Amino acid sequence: MLKKILLPLAICYSSSILAGADFPIINNQGKTIGNVAIKQGTEGVLINIKAKGLPPGYHGMHFHRKGDCSDLATFKSAEGHIDPHKKPHGYLNPKGPHEGNLPNLIVSQDGSVEVELYSHMVQLKEGPAKLLDEDGSALIIHANKDDHTSQPIGGSGGRLACAIIK
Questions:
Q1: Whether the bond into 84 is cis, omega within 30 of 0
Q2: Which of 18, 74, 101, 160 has the largest count of CB atoms under 10 Å?
Q3: CB atoms within 10 A of CB 144
Q4: Exposed e or buried b for every residue in 35-66, given b needs 16+ CB within 10 A?
Q5: What pLDDT digit, counting tens, does each position of 2-14 carry?
Q6: Domain named Superoxide dismutase copper/zinc binding: which ranges (predicted)?
């Protein structure tokens, strides 16, 4: 009887991850400040971000290699950007961009943001730049604007917020 129940549950869980999932965004104090929803598209992922409590202005944002936000002070536990093909950082770099690149996040004066964007450079579960690999990945929101050229992170500065994608 238990096997009959567990198999359908496993299938439902697996297909929901393939279709998409929601992940909380935390700040450097470990407080949940928002959510990122990521859904698999035909050739990439659809990303919906909703958050509050961020500094107003432009903020670099990237997918990082490891789904680990345990180092609250710096979020360095998420490691560097997803970059399986070892390309330079930046949408404006003639030899880039690498797969972890995302557009800047623009936070309103009240510290809130709600945005939908698409990345064709990553997948949820397939290919070399998959978000849901063995150790997951992380969405990191940085302190400064990404200039889309400078190495290694476009001048984006420190890490303000982190979402574990696992």
A1: no
A2: 101
A3: 18
A4: ebebebeeeebebebbbebbeeebbbbbbbbb
A5: 444 444 434 443 4
A6: 34-165
CA–CA gap between residue 108 and residue 115 (Å, rounded) = 11
Strand partners, 130: 123
Quote the tokens at residue 102: 């995302």
- Alpha-carbon distance 144 to 37, whole Å? 23
Q: How far is CA 99 from CA 48, 71, 89, 153, in A?
A: 18, 23, 9, 13
> In whole angstroms, what separates CA 2 from the centre of its chain?
36
CB 117 within 8 A of CB 158: no
The number of folded domains in the chain is 1
For the segment 102-127, the average pLDDT, to the nearest whole number, is 96
Tell me which residue range forms the domain holding 78: 20-165
Q: Report yes or no on 8 lying in a domain.
A: no
The reply to whether 95 falls in a domain is: yes
Evaluate whether residue 126 is within a structural domain: yes
Return the CATH number at 108: 2.60.40.200
Q: What is the pTM of this model?
A: 0.86
For the chain, the residue count is 166
